[in-house]
Amino acid sequence: MAFVTPKSQQRSYDVIVVGSGAAGGQTVYTLCMEGARVLMLEAGRRYAPETETPMFQTPDQAPLGGVGTPQKPFGFYDATVDGGWQVPGEPYVRTTEDHGGRFDWWRARMLGGRTNHWGRISLRNGPYDFKPKSRDGLGFDWPINYEDVAPYYDKVELLIGVYGSNEGLENTPNSSPGCLLPPPKPIVSDYAIAKAARHLGIPVIPGHRAVLTRALDHRSNPKRIHPGNGRAQEILAADMQSRAPCLWATPCGRGCSIRANYQSTTVHLPPALATGKLDITTDAMVYEVTLGADGKASGVSFVDRTTGRHEHASARVVVLAASACESARILLNSKSAHFPDGLANSSGKVGRYIMDTVGSDVWGQVPQLESLPPLNEDGADGHAYYMPWWLYQQQRAGKLGFARGYHVEFSGGRRMPGPGTAAGLEWLTGGNYGAKFKQDVRRFYGSLVYFSGRGEMIPNENSYCEIDPGGVKDRFGIPVLRFHWKFSEHETRQAAHMQRTFGEIIEAMGGRPHRIETDGAKAILPGGLIIHEVGGAIMGADPKVSVTNQWCQTWDVPNLFVTDGAVFPSNADKNPTLTIMAVAWRAADHILERLRRKEL
Amino acid sequence: MIDRRTTIKWMLAASAAWPAWRTAVGQPRHGTALLRPPAAPGYGTDPDLVTSHKRGEFWPLTLSAAQRRLAAVLSDLIIPADEHSASASAVGVVDFIDEWVSAPYPVQQHDRPVVLDGFTWLDAEGARRGGKGFAELDTATQTAMCDSICDATRAPAERREAARFFALYRDLTAAAFYSSPAGARDLGYVGNVPLTSFEGAPPELLKKLNLT
Q1: Which of A90, A446, A566, B5 could hold A474 in an S-S bridge, CB 3.0 to 4.6 Å?
Q2: Please, which residues bridge with residue A285 across strands?
Q3: What pLDDT is stored for residue A337 in this prediction?
Q4: CB-closest option in B16, B19, B47 to A418
């Protein structure tokens, strides 16, 4: 079993998994390592990071110095293939272009999806994050606790490799012993920022990212991940030995040819393929889950992008892991006499409660960091440190005016020079040019610091997606999504708080913020821009107001599961990818158990 | 709406630095009529990332010989040779700018008339001041002209457009120069090399900066 075309697929599988990113990768990994026969369908093309990643390429070797364009929005060398804010021939619709009401949807059409380029930030949700409504009355609780997910966080960290440290801070969980790799050593600007922040009472601790700061323990980890499964241990141990640790150069967003960071394509799929249990069909654009006469899912229909033909694949279980909004789209497009509003939608909640992360950024210049001696500060591509949310008490006392927290990602240092290095410096140079300008660029290079607030958005009734009532279809003839979006004051006030805080930190460093926006509605980045969209098929304890149960199993169709971010009933400030993988692993374990008991 | 300078800063940062820096969903402010709209599909959504690309490989370069001459003179006024590194034109900045203003993407198409109008203004103003095109003027006159438009915040109303052009052109010149190996050397960048370990900040430097 391996890469197959629709013609060479098996007649039926135990499980079909739609999507190959963090959720799809984790789901097929867990299923195949435990013996299930799985077909993975990916809408994009096959992608091989080992040969396609631009390691060490410099900006002068790229068109336009590698700056972002509509065809490569995060820059020429970004790993994303056939994607970005728009995918050619695959439009989506929104109700407004306005800053406060627009939603932008980042998609990738490639094996591994967005895991190929993501920031690798891997934070655990804490105990509060699973029960937000119980704490402040807003949004929804998860039907599970931190303790339910904790063993899976451990397993994901042991499998993919996450650096970090255990600090025992409030709602910022420790990992079990041996799960985390050592964090990278901080650079000068990290120390300077940490000193100023701590002076203001803000904690600064090592970040958590899915980058191998040293090789994974191939003797111990496989045993902890697959107890009692010698074959799985053997496959994983061999694969772990073929992953190299970080070589401390070249940005992670390009992907990693030596497999030193987590991408589904370099971490989940190779061992899953080695089991011989996994078939993968790429260029398979799934648009519908089909139903049998028994009311159970019989398989999926898809368009083969290479031939344009409509195809069908069958399995005992169907798992959607196509990304939150794409999974919602497939459900909404799976209409039948029995399910006129889309599949698994008896609650009317499919597509509802889409959340992104609240984002607001500030940069500034710090004289203390000027004209430092030449130093290699590439490290593990930044994020040696971060600031976890620290104002739980003030928030509980109602002093902040917004209900949920944020964490702070920051960066600085002598990064690889590029087109942005000396652009827009007039606020520092007074608009000079010539010999003085060159001196100034040397002086200011490495003295700029960047702060990104990443905060929790509370789900609301005005942020959702639906099948476009205007009838727009993509190039395959599949109806597209229309997005509605609105932030509440909990989000805009939080964004204003970020701006003020970052200004204070920069000033405490003796530096100068470029610009502080105190109007939260302007300070907040538009919906979707942080690319942490979750929700759309939320899990819950009540079938009337949720789409799946705690096992990611849809209430309406027992053999249909959704294992991506769509099931999140809340979106903590912690970046969602690690939680997507932990929840997917837990769901896949449940599927295996039910398959063994012949209940599916 | 995010202002355009911020947009550009982010777009540039997106390619140059921390991947969490987001490219804003940038649109040009208005549909400026193009002087000679480039007609090319761009490099597509799935270009080869591991080979080195030449300027003009994906779309034709469009500046005339006279425009390129002016571009070289102006770039070298902005980034002249000094004891650290060569001048802008010596490291291929003119090709970069030609590629930029010839590119089929919205930001670049927005910049194209700003740059070409700016060139026209420089030649007209040069003729008024010294009876010659800008590139043929003596350095003192060229410098005096640049001085009059280099700070957009102080430029009088009649030179505001020219000052806006100069700010953009300085950004493009710097973008090209500091993207080049010579520019990286000029800044003392010593990364982008594989290491077996990463030691972070040197303790003696932290001590000197009072950061321990």
Answers
A1: A90
A2: A303
A3: 87
A4: B16
Confidence class of residue B17 from pLDDT cuts 50, 70 and 90?
very low
Q: Residue A338: its pLDDT value, please?
A: 86
A427 touches chain B (CB under 8 A): no
> What is the pLDDT at residue A1?
56
Q: What digits encode the pLDDT tens for the residues B116-152?
A: 999 999 999 999 999 999 999 999 999 999 999 999 9
The count of domains in chain B is 1
Rounded to an integer, the average pLDDT of A507-530 is 98
DSSP for A199-217, please give it.
HTT---EE--BSB-SS---
Kindly identify which residue of chain A lies nearest to residue B175, measuring between CA atoms: A419
User: pTM above 0.80?
Assistant: yes
Give the residue on B whose Cα is nearest the Cα of A254: B19
Is there a domain that residue B111 lies in? yes
- Whether B123 has its CB under 8 Å from any CB of chain A: the answer is no
d(CA A134, CA A132): 5
Closest CA to A382 of B17, B116, B190: B17
Residue B58 C-alpha, separation from nearest chain A C-alpha, in angstroms: 8
Domain ranges, residue B137: 64-187
Per CB-CB distance under 8 Å, the chain A contacts of B164 are none
Does residue B39 belong to any structural domain of this protein?
Answer: no
In 3D space, the residue among A367, A450, A386 whose CA is nearest the CA of residue A415 turns out to be: A450
Q: How far off is chain B from A506, nearest CA to CA, in Å?
A: 15
Task: Give yes or no for B96 touching A (CB within 8 A).
Answer: yes
> Considering the domain boundaries, does residue B110 fall inside one?
yes
* Length of chain B, in residues: 212
* Chain B interface includes A182 (CB < 8 A): no
Is B82 part of a structural domain of the chain? yes
CATH classification (class only), A1-48+73-162+262-345+531-600: alpha beta
Mutate to test the interface with A, among B101, B178, B186 (most CBs of A within 10 A): B178
What is the band of A2 on the pLDDT scale with cuts at 50, 70, 90?
Answer: very high
pLDDT at site A445: 97
Which tokens is A307 given?
A: 């031939």
